Structure prediction request, 552 residues.
Amino acid sequence: MIFKKQLAEALEQSLARVKEQGIMGQANLPEVAIEKPARPGHGDYASSLPLKLARLTGLKPMDVANAIVKNIAPMKDIEKISVAAPGFINFTLSKDWLTSEVDVICKAGESYGNIKLDDRAVQIEFVSGNPTGPLHVGHGRGAVLGSTLAHVLRAAGYKVSTEYYINDAGSQLEAFHRSLFARYQQALGKEAEVPANGYKGNYVLALAKEIIGAHGDKYLQMPQEEGIIEIGKLGIQMEMDQIKQDLKTLGVNFDEWFSEQSLFRSGQFDQTMQRLRDGGFIAERENATWFISSTLGDDRDNVLIRSDGTPTYFASDIAYHYNKFVDRKFDNVIDIWGADHQGHVLRMKVVMNALGINPDKLEIMICQLVTLRRGKELVKISKRSGDIITLRELLDEVGPDACRFVFLSRSADSQMDFDLELAIKQSADNPVYYVQYAHARISSILRNAEEKGIDFSQGDVSLLTSEPELTLVRSMARISEVIETVAMSRQPHHLPFYAQDLATVFHSFYKQCRVVSDDDSKSKARLKLVQAARLVLAKTLHLMGMAAPDKM
RNA sequence: GUCCCUGUAGCUCAGUGGAUAGAGCGGCUGCCUUCUAAGCAGCGGGUCGUCGGUUCGAAUCCGACCAGGGAUGCCA
Prediction:
């Protein structure tokens, strides 16, 4: 159920009748927007159409509003249509519709609120952290954002595929191999140094020790170059396993793990480069191969093949996106990147054009960086410098649910200050528990009813007439609009705000209304109501990738 | 220098053309004989970065400026 469209149509029809009566000139119809009033007294929906029309016609807004309302056809589920100064039309949902929605929710279960916004195939690629080290908190933010968006887009009807791009090719790998080998030598008491451009973090040493524990000095027994490659492969594998484990702990699953190397093995990389060459977008100069993006709106050209013959990250990303759109035929691709990848956005858009792919189909969400603090102390998150706070540590300290909720509560394009000290200290008062507690409370009520052997399947929802009861239904009914908003704007942060609102409304209801009481028929009606609330709460939590606990 | 993001309550943040600008945390008052007090009810708290413009109406749109962060690699 989405009333907005119906209400907009009703307003348009009414307006047409008003015009026929000659009350108003031939003013062109502004877009009829249906809004949610801020205050409960103003009903469930509102339109400022009269205010907009007043400007075009020169009539008084209140006169326009009254004329429109007088000509509006009665609607079954709308109880009241009223005019309010300075020129709003307010709609109030009927109590019958609200209460009957309780039965609808109970019947629909967790599919309640799903909509058919779009059924296209969309891929969401996120995290895609290099397998040269553990994921850090910034990856965690992207992971939570991406997985939540995937849940919501599915609920909105899209065919969603989630993907992790494994950068298992390229120059960073080489640097990691050599760093690991050097640490391995050191741990075995040999003189060795981590390369200048290498990974100096302690985790590399820890990894080397772990390898020694399992394989001893095996990699020193082979020719050095072979040893570097072999231990490198193993190290990457172990890091990748750790990454998958961390993501699993965070509640993040991927449909596909896509290997960068596979682009080279399959010949797709060469094909894509050839296509750019055929299009005349390539130049050879200074011993390197360039993509001539400056002629396509970028402010400079970009290197595809370095003078040493190795491809750049940009080049394989082009092939990767060619694969997404042309081979796998996704209608839409959403990439979620950290703000440090911002310089990559424009050239990817430009290259889509060069490949004959509509750049609008590639949506790039940049999520701003996470600054970590412990109290006043800033924590650096650079992978190569050494000291990092990993996603794993964050999960150990804060827990996956609180972690997800905090990440989700900020819009992607605002930087966030994550104070570990505060997150841990406040964990008991965290809004995440407030929401989950509402779910646990309902579960407790339902257990109570079960112990008393109450069968409320025939409960009469029309008995739900008090304000706390109806307010709860109103909030539940809003979930489809929340799903629509998140799906269209691609901004999952609306979800935790909705979850909190729903929980607040429930807790308030709980305080005011005894569910299981001496009044049999009222008990049954209210049991239906709280069961519906539990379903919507659980759905909201699950969309956010969080647990809906029965006990706390 | 150029480009992107941000600036709203003591703190962390929602709200991006409409009605009296909201939430959480922190502070202060009350509330557990009844299904979970991880809760409820209330109080206090604001030059919406600054200045100008557009509009019947601006935190929201436009311009300039100030402040913080990021990008500007033959790194990814």
